[in-house]
Amino acid sequence: MNMPFFHVGILVRDVEAARADFTAKLGVEFEPVHSQKIATGETTRFCYSLQGPPYLELVEMTGTGSWSPEQPEGFHHIGISDPSVPARCSVFGDGVDLIAPGDDGSPRVVLTPAGALHGVRVEYFDEAIATQFLGYLRSRAAG
């Protein structure tokens, strides 16, 4: 399921407030907010819109680097599912951040550096994750 533009990541200072604002001002509905530890050891808080694809992903700024509060709020990345995340890593070279490894240590979710594609980060994730998450979002939207 290679699905270009599965989601658009948006950095926000407060994910609960952003979720409420996007709902009130744009009529976009969201799933509940999740917390997840990423490969760097930082915990991120996020939620996805129930309308899509492409979905909106609101990501609360935490930690350091590309997710840090020093980053401006707004557009952060394009999320794309891919059948071979390791192959995508090789296309972008050094500087790709590992977000989530598979059980065998291979990359399942990665984030490219902003400078690798004209200032746009790309989050590549294993298509099995996309298939599972798509089913989850559709079930939330339906009921």
Our measurement of the CA-to-CA distance between the termini, rounded to an integer number of angstroms, reads 24 Å
Query: Describe the biggest sheet?
Result: 8 strands, mixed
* Mean residue pLDDT: 86
Instruction: Classify the secondary structure makeup into a structural class.
Output: alpha+beta
> Which stretches are low in confidence, meaning pLDDT under 50 for 5 or more residues running?
none
Spatial arrangement of strands, main beta sheet: 2-3-4-1-5-8-7-6
Number of strands: 8
Report on the architecture of this protein.
Helices cover 25% and strands 33% of the residues. The protein has three helices and eight strands, in the order βαββββαβββα. An eight-stranded mixed beta sheet has the order 2-3-4-1-5-8-7-6. β3 and β4 form a beta hairpin. The protein is globular and about 40 Å long. The two termini are 24 Å apart.
